[in-house]
Every structure is written in structure tokens, then in C-alpha cells.
Amino acid sequence: MEVFVVVIVVAAIGGVVWGIVRASTRRDMLRELAASLGGEATSNTAAGQLDGVRVRLEFATRGSGSSSESWTYVDGVLPSGYPLVLHLEEHGWFDAGKIARGEMIDVVVGDLPFDQKFRIEGAPADVVQRLLTPPTRAYLLAQRRVELTTTPGNLRMAVRGWLEQPADARAALALVAGLASGLRAASLALDAEVPMTTGAGGAYRAGPDDAPLRAAREARAEEVARVEATRTARLARQRFIVIAIAVAIAAVLATMIAAR
């Protein structure tokens, strides 16, 4: 019995020491990472500039207690003036039905393993397809679990687990910086593909008419708004269903208790 107690105590002390060492190593890595980015670090974050993009890496935890999970968030600031919405996650069981009913958008990139694994609620679709290059798709497929999400002015990649190895952290930051900087390039490349027409320029000359270009840009902005509206409506319906089920269960339980 005494030996068992000693073993438990030693194991507990070892766990505490290991946790302290790991936290110290993680802080050192973040400081070095921030220094290479010309930025700043905290106990759980490193931020700075990479290839002209403001980036940030954070070690976070989702959930609590026994259900808690470690995640790494990598953020990159998106250039203004180029509309984009992107929500990339692994496919769920009921996605096919939602897509068929028009409740969910799923951009297909033409890479079968990638398209089978991930749902891409994104717009403009042609911009998203250009951003998700073969190297980017290979990186995302290699992760145990990964998500890409945009909020106004920001792109976030969430990777399950803490990317505590410097090479892994740098690779994640490089991918997000590449996506953020690639938004402008992809949008301008699509602009260049718009056929220009010649408009009236007076009695003796005619100049280029930018109406087709303006129409193409407006169409991309409208596509973004449409995808966001579709997603917002679906999530609202899901919340309503969850609340309705909870209320129904509560009512049944209350009836059962009152009947006793």
C-alpha cells in the first residue's frame, strides 16, 4: 500500500513538472516565432507580419473538463475591397440533403478526396477555387481536423491540437498568409478575364467601357451576400429546432412529474 501511494505521488509530481516544462518550452517557441515576425508574444500567442500580412497564432482550448480539446488558431488579416466568405469544415452526415434542398452551398474544387472530405460554403466560388491550390489542399487534407472561417476582414484556420513544433507553426502561418495575400491576386486575375467593350467617346473617338468589369465585381459581391444569407438562415432554423426540442422534452418531463 505504501509503495502504491509513493508511485501515485511520484507520478503526480512528474505530471506537474512535465506540464511546467512544456509550458516553458511553448512560451520560448512563441517568443522566437514572434521575433521572426517582428511582433510580440504572450504565454499563448505570437503575432506579427508575414509576407506583408498581419498574422497571429494562438493556442486555445474548446470545451471544458473531460470534453476539452486543444486547438491552434491562426489568423490573417484580409485585404479590404475584395469580398470573400469562406466556411470550410468536414462534411456532416446530413450535408447532402441540405445541399440538395438549397439550404447549403458547397463549392466543388475538382479534387475528389478533398471534395469528399470537406464542405466549402464559400463565395465567390471562382475566387475560392483559385485560393485552394493543390499545395493548400494537400496541407488541409493532412491535418487530423481543420477548419477555415472568415469574419469581416479576417481569415482563421483552426487546427486541432497545439502546433508546438516551430516548423509546424511556421507552416500554418505561411498557409494563412498565402491565402490572405492570394485573395487580391485571385480577384484581380478574374478581373483581367472580363472581356472589355468599347463605349461611346464622343463624335470622333471611342474609349474602353468598364461596365462589364463593374458588373462582374458586383456579381461577386452579390454571390457573397447570397451565401452568407443562406448560411445564416440555415443556422437560425437549426437553433429554432434545438430550442423546440428542448422545450418539448421539458414539457414532457413536467407532465410526467405532475402525474406522479
Alpha-beta classification: alpha+beta
Indicate the low-confidence ranges by residue numbers: 15-21
Number of helices: 7
Radius of gyration, in Å, reads 25 Å
Give the biggest sheet: 8 strands, antiparallel
Strand order of the largest sheet: 1-2-3-4-8-7-5-6
| Amount of beta strand | 15-25%
**What is the 3D form?**
flat
Query: Could you tell me the number of beta strands?
Result: 10
* Helix content estimate: 40-55%
Span between termini? 49 Å
Mean pLDDT: 88
The ordered string of helix (H) and strand (E) elements is: HEEEEEHHEHHEEHEEH
What does this structure look like?
The strands form two sheets. An eight-stranded antiparallel sheet has the order 1-2-3-4-8-7-5-6. The protein contains seven helices and ten strands. α4 crosses α6. A hairpin with a 3-residue loop joins β1 (about 40) and β2 (about 45-50). By secondary structure, the chain is an alpha+beta fold. About 20% of the residues are buried.
